[in-house]
Amino acid sequence: MKKKLLIINGPGLSDLSNFNEFGHDNLTLEKVQKKCLETCDSLGISVDFCQTDDQAELSNYLLKASKEFDALIINPAAYSNAASLDPDLYASNIEAMANQKKPVIEVHIANIFQKGVNINSPIKASEGNVGFVSGFGIHSYDLAIRAVNKQLSQKS
Ligand SMILES: O=C1C[C@@](O)(C(=O)O)C[C@@H](O)[C@@H]1O
To answer: CB of 118 closer than 6 A to ligand 1?
Structure first.
């Protein structure tokens, strides 16, 4: 049976035009989605790709991830530094995945540690299997999918 991957995109990511100034020209979420679907297809992974600006919806997706999916890739976007996000809610769902040894990768289009980028901090989880890819534009997602695929194939 095909492994199931959920890719969640957080608030603001429906419009990627502000990435032009970081050299990721003309990037759109549709292009990112297309690339992800192609990569998953070539690796034999089934994928759901979603975006939300709403915290409640995001936590529903996270709950779904740990119950119904084998792996999660998440771009938390503004939530990685927003004071409004409940960090326990976020961390507990991520850890629910990690506790089941399901790979989780946080991705960012931009390098969030780059000078001039607002201060962000990556997911903090106590379990292993949580990775991080940042700064490679559309390729951040591609790299994350390939890493997830490796981890999933080592498990089976
Ligand atoms: O919304 C975003 C996008 C982002 O997550 C990225 O993909 O590069 C980086 C964050 O700093 C920013 O708040």
So the answer is: yes
Residue-level pLDDT at 127? 58
Domain residue ranges in the chain:
3-155
Residue 75 CB–ligand 1 contact under 6 Å: yes
Q: How far apart are CA 28 and CA 19, in angstroms?
A: 9
Give dist(CA 22, CA 31) in Å, integer.
17
Mean pLDDT by runs of 10 across the 156 residues of the chain is 96 90 84 98 98 90 93 86 62 82 92 70 64 94 97 81
Domain over 3-155 is classified CATH 3.10.129.10: no
120 touches ligand 1 (CB under 6 Å)? yes
Task: Tell me the three state secondary structure of residue 59.
Answer: helix
Which of 7, 15, 58, 75 gets mutated to test ligand 1 (max ligand atoms within 8 A of its CB)? Answer: 75
7 lines ligand 1 (CB under 6 A): no
